[in-house]
Design a protein that fits this description.
The chain has helices at residues 14-23, 31-38, 44-53, 66-73, 77-104, 117-120, 137-148, 152-160, 165-170, 182-197, 201-230, and strands at 2-8, 27-30, 109-113, 127-134, 174-177. It starts with a strand and ends with a helix. It has two domains: 1-27 and 107-198, P-loop containing nucleotide triphosphate hydrolases (Rossmann fold), CATH 3.40.50.300; 29-105, P-loop containing nucleotide triphosphate hydrolases (Rossmann fold), CATH 3.40.50.300. By secondary structure, the chain is an alpha/beta fold.
């Protein structure tokens, strides 16, 4: 099994592309879904966020108010780094546990959505291929304003907090342009799926795992044999 990283900018359509992979029977891991679970009431991350940011980021139902928290961290680099330090290690650990689960379930490859894949760099070494989803900057702003009820200034400020799309594209193996309609996005995504299905890397990876496992078992058996021969 190998991992395909899916990234992009804010409101470029990563979730749309991820859903197309899912519809095609591909195992996917959604970082945003995991982030919500990591911050569920009572978790260690939830307690640390509440302690550091205060009760103002906790809504009446006890959950973290992500809109309020987002407004705080996107206007303060130090607080944004603190939030990342609290949540990112736990999110990454949960994602890798899911990846191992998919591996033992027999999946040839999985698609892992990591919005800050290049910005943090922590997950890059696990990625066999990387897909970046892009769209026109005006569309990003428009979608953010519509989705989160942001002003254009706020939307642009948040977009600028991330690595420019041009830099992400230069570091990627595939690019999906989500500026058009859903049929265009689907066509591009399914074209990549066909290429990934033809990849022989999964068999190479499985062979390495098999050989490593057999070598380990042989080593244990050899040690046991020598031990009993001495008795």
């Amino acid at each position: 099994m190998f991992i395909v990283g899916l990234t992009g900018g804010l409101a470029t359509g990563k979730s749309t592309v991820l859903s197309i992979f899912r519809e095609n029977g591909i195992a996917v891991i959604d970082a945003d879904d995991i982030a919500k679970k990591v911050l569920e009431p009572g978790t260690i991350a939830w307690k640390e966020v509440k302690e550091y940011f205060g009760d103002e980021v906790i809504s009446d139902d006890g959950k973290v108010d992500r809109l309020v928290l987002g407004n705080i961290v996107f206007n303060d680099k130090d607080k944004r780094m603190k939030l990342n330090a609290i949540t990112h290690p736990r999110i990454q650990s949960a994602m890798m546990r899911m990846a191992f689960s998919y591996f033992f379930s027999g999946h040839r490859y999985i698609v892992m959505e990591v919005p800050l894949l290049f910005e943090t760099g922590k997950m890059l070494r696990f990625m066999h291929k990387i897909i970046t989803v892009v769209c026109d900057i005006d569309q990003q702003i428009s979608r953010l304003c519509e989705r989160n009820d942001f002003s254009e200034i706020v939307a642009m400020t948040r977009i600028k907090c991330q690595m420019p799309l041009e830099e992400k594209v230069a570091k990627s193996d595939f690019v999906i342009d989500n500026s058009g309609d859903i049929s265009s996005t689907r066509q591009q995504t399914e074209s990549i799926i066909r290429l990934l299905r033809r990849s022989k890397f999964t068999w190479y990876f499985r062979a390495i795992i098999l050989i490593s496992s057999l070598s380990f078992l042989f080593g244990i058996a050899n040690i046991a044999y020598k031990f009993y021969c001495k008795k």
